[in-house]
Amino acid sequence: MFDFQQYLGFLLFLGIFLTGFWLMLFLVNFVFYWVGGALWEMYKEKRNGKNNE
Q1: 53 by DSSP, 3-state: which?
Q2: What are phi and psi of 2, to 5 degrees?
Q3: What is the mean pLDDT of the chain?
């Protein structure tokens, strides 16, 4: 069925693929967190600016 070389190649591919997948998820979540925080701070500044006037 599979010889040892193909098994190692599959494990290497799986390891690289899963590492890239989790890194992509982490970076996408980090970007959403960053953008969401910036939008929230802009909203709070605008809200406080209206209250102070």
Answers
A1: coil
A2: -110, 135
A3: 90
